[in-house]
């Protein structure tokens, strides 16, 4: 029996850990809510999950892959997630290595989602791919020529902050008009309420999608507007990176046709260049497990974590 890879997925809402087989099967999974408190309190939850998951292994664990919300700093092994304010330049690679005694590889959560979908999900075998998550925020990661593309610091593929409305709303990143301010779940619901959507105060993008599915005019307009913004972003990234596939996951992507139909229609209007016209857009298949599977794929890649030949990544 081949060894296992330990995967850790750190986000502002939850921290998850799992064991991944050599074929990409997630054989064990555990998670905890991301705790409030200082940096060590947050780390304590991650360390507890690592210990619990290692104890569940039925064979040797050979490496650890980390998927983290960003920004991250791959060269220095640190993370400063916007949604975990207690962690600023937190030395997660050293902490995980000290806890497990194993080699560790760090990647952004968007990149790991893309790698997970490429290995076991909707992006199997893709060579030029954007994987993106549309949820509370919008994130993404790039696979270019079959290899994970980190960029200079590990933050390449941060597509949620592509500007689609130059005079648009202020974003949490400090910029204006990012696609996240238009098409993320909370902003879809916020726009719909401002334009007459009558829903209970706790209703969110899930309820908005259900309303759109029933033909609610405002809900439909909200998704058309959000899909148009996503299409503008995708067309821009595709023109720069010469993509052949985009895989869209996250809670908003579970809306199905109310998102994907206007998204594909809008993308056709923005795809003027011949090499973009054949771009495929598919819903993700792995759900919340993609980050763990992708972190394991990243840990299996050769070199320093910034790139590797396509045949060295899990196929």
From TrEMBL:
Domain of life from the UniProt record: Bacteria
Q: Does the keyword Transferase apply?
A: yes
Pfam families, per this entry? ROK (PF00480)
GO MF term list: kinase activity
Signal sequence, start to end? none
- Alphabetically ordered keywords of this record: Kinase, Transferase
Q: By its UniProt entry, which InterPro entries does this protein fall under?
A: ATPase_NBD, ROK, ROK_cs
- Tell me its family: Belongs to the ROK (NagC/XylR) family.
Q: What is this protein called?
A: Sugar kinase
What organism does the UniProt record list as the source? Mycolicibacterium iranicum
């Amino acid at each position: 029996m081949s060894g296992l890879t330990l995967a850790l997925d750190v986000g502002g809402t939850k921290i998850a850990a799992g064991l991944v087989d050599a074929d990409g099967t997630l054989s064990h999974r555990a998670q905890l809510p991301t705790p409030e408190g200082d940096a060590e309190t947050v780390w304590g939850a991650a360390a507890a999950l690592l210990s619990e998951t290692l104890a569940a292994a039925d064979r040797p664990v050979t490496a650890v892959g980390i998927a983290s919300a960003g920004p991250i700093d791959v060269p220095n092994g640190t993370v400063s997630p916007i949604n975990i304010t207690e962690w600023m330049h937190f030395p997660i690679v050293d902490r995980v290595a000290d806890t497990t005694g194993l080699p560790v590889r760090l990647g952004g959560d968007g990149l790991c989602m893309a790698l997970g979908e490429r290995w076991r999900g909707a992006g199997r075998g893709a060579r030029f791919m954007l994987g993106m998550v549309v949820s509370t925020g919008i994130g993404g990661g790039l696979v270019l020529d079959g290899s994970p593309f980190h960029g200079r610091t590990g933050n390449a593929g941060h597509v949620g902050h592509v500007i689609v409305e130059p005079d648009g709303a202020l974003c949490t990143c400090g910029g204006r008009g990012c696609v996240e301010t238009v098409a993320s779940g909370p902003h879809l619901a916020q726009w719909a309420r401002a334009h007459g959507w009558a829903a209970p105060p706790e209703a969110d993008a899930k309820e908005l999608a259900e309303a759109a599915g029933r033909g609610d005019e405002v809900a439909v307009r909200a998704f058309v507007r959000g899909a148009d913004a996503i299409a503008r972003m995708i067309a821009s990234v595709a023109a720069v990176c010469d993509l052949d596939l985009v895989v869209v996951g996250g809670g908003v992507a579970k809306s199905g046709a109310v998102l994907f139909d206007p998204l594909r229609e809008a993308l056709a209007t923005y795809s003027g260049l011949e090499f973009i016209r054949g771009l495929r857009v598919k819903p993700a298949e792995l759900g919340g497990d993609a980050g763990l599977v992708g972190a394991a794929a990243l840990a299996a890649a050769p070199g320093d974590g910034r790139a590797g030949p396509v045949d060295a990544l899990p196929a």
